[in-house]
Design goal:
This protein has about 80 residues and is an alpha+beta fold. Helices cover about 25% and strands about 5% of the residues. The chain has one helix at about 5-25, and strands spanning about 55, 60-65. A two-stranded antiparallel sheet has the order 1-2. A hairpin with a 5-residue loop joins strand 1 (about 55) and strand 2.
Length: about 80
């Protein structure tokens, strides 16, 4: 049988778990109006023209072809490093 201290420990553990679960709960209000209709169109196996220009993480303009032919895979992601 569990002692009083053991029961208190179980009660506090249950309270902590319930509070932690509630802290992570969020209300789903749907997408903001600005994001309605925004999505991702996958173009698997599609090829990009290698003469496209981009700005790298150092702010330097680079042509896409500069990244190919180095015997390494190329992963192109469109994201911000800072605002």
């Amino acid at each position: 049988m569990c002692s009083l201290a053991c029961r208190r420990a179980w009660v506090w553990t249950a309270v902590f778990c319930a509070a932690a679960t509630a802290a992570h709960a969020q209300i789903n209000r749907g997408l903001p109006e600005e994001l309605q209709g925004v999505g991702v169109d996958e173009k698997l196996d599609a090829q990009l023209p290698l003469d496209l220009w981009f700005t790298d993480s150092d702010g330097k303009r680079v042509q896409l072809r500069e990244f190919f032919g180095r015997r390494r895979p190329v992963m192109l992601t469109f994201n911000y490093f800072r605002c």
